[in-house]
Each structure stands twice: as C-alpha cells, then as structure tokens.
C-alpha cells in the first residue's frame, strides 16, 4: 500500500502489527501531516492542481508553505512506488496525524484486536528550521497536542534523528517515550552522550547492528530497548530475529509476521 496513508495503516492493523510507524511534518497552517518528506515527492503523486511533479524541483512544493487543504488535494498512490513494484495502486492523500490516530483506534475496536502502539518520527534538521518545519520546541508541542488529544500518549514513542527534538520532548513531556534514531557510523554511546540522557529506545539502521553489538549495548544500557530499521528481506529478518531486540521496523510486516508465526 502507499506509504504513510490510511489504506496502509489499516492494512497493517488487519495483518496484526503491534505498532504503526509513521513520519510527520507540519503544514503552513500548523497542522501535523503524515508524510515522509516535507515536500510533495514526485515518486508518490501529484501537485494540488493534479499535475505531475518535476523530480528536480519537488522541494519547491514545500509542505511547510502549503495549507493542509492544498496538501490534501495532492493525490498519492496512483502508481506503485519505484522501490516497491508490487505495491497496490490506491489513490489517496496525505492524512493528518489526528485522522490516522482516530481511524486506527476505531479499527482496533472493530477488528477486536489489542490497541496498537504508535511510533511517530519527527522529520527535523537544523538546516530545515523555519524553512521546512518549525524549530524543535514548537514542532514537539504540535505533535504532543495531537497524541494527548487522542489519549494515546502512553502507547506512543516519539522518534527522531535530531537530538534537539528529543531534548525538547524531554523538557516538555518528561515521561514521554523517546527513540533516538541513527544511520551514521557514530556509536550509540557517543550519540547518547550528545543527547544528554538515555532514551527509552535506540533505533539504528539494522546494518549498524550485530548480535555481538546487541549484547554489548544490553550490558551497557540494561533498560534500553532496541528497534532496528528497516529490515525487509526474509534472510535479514531471520537473522535480526535471532538478536535480543525489542522489535523490528519493516516495510513488509506480512513477511515478519509469517516468519514469527503470527500472520493473521
């Protein structure tokens, strides 16, 4: 299903996932929008007028400079993503975070399945401040308001590669679960020292982990949960499942659930 859309989340819930992972950005009118990029991606869909987007100029379609009404008119999912040729076309739109939370909560009840958790990544960089997104404190405040209004704060983890986001969240909501993401060669101890505290979760690119490194991290940080990403191929899933980790982020939950004997 098209990434970061209601059809995708509802399908994942029907499969039986424990947590929905999603990315959020902010619109010009301060709405929390579920989207991987803070602009309209040419690979994903069209602009508000229905025209195709020039890949060389897609960043000009800056979501932080567009009201949500225009973002909602920008269709995604008409064609499979180039990286996922078996994706089912499903013309849809970029939903608001509150809409996703409301729909997911209702679907859990309808499916008579346990309530799901939420991993919400705040897309932020220092270079993008006030250009593609608000500064960290305001960004965090907007997201916290949505999860608090939906009464899912206890089941939600805020994720970011940007330590400033996690530091702001720690200050604004000291009990909020936080995940430090990593795709660099810097070690977890170095990154945690830069962060200034040990988060509840560490989420590295799975290529940066090994069974031995997992054991080392467990010895150094006994309470730290480990959730590597993005593990998609069956042989990688099988290997990562042998590590002592908390969870796995994948674009193919059907594969992971089948390997774990939990496919619904």
UniProtKB/TrEMBL annotation:
It holds the Pfam family GDPD. PROSITE patterns: GP_PDE. Residues 1-260 form the GP-PDE domain. InterPro entries: GP_PDE_dom, PLC-like_Pdiesterase_TIM-brl. PANTHER family: GLYCEROPHOSPHODIESTER PHOSPHODIESTERASE (PTHR46211:SF14), GLYCEROPHOSPHORYL DIESTER PHOSPHODIESTERASE (PTHR46211). This is Glycerophosphodiester phosphodiesterase family protein. The lineage of its organism: Bacteria, Pseudomonadati, Bacteroidota, Cytophagia, Cytophagales.
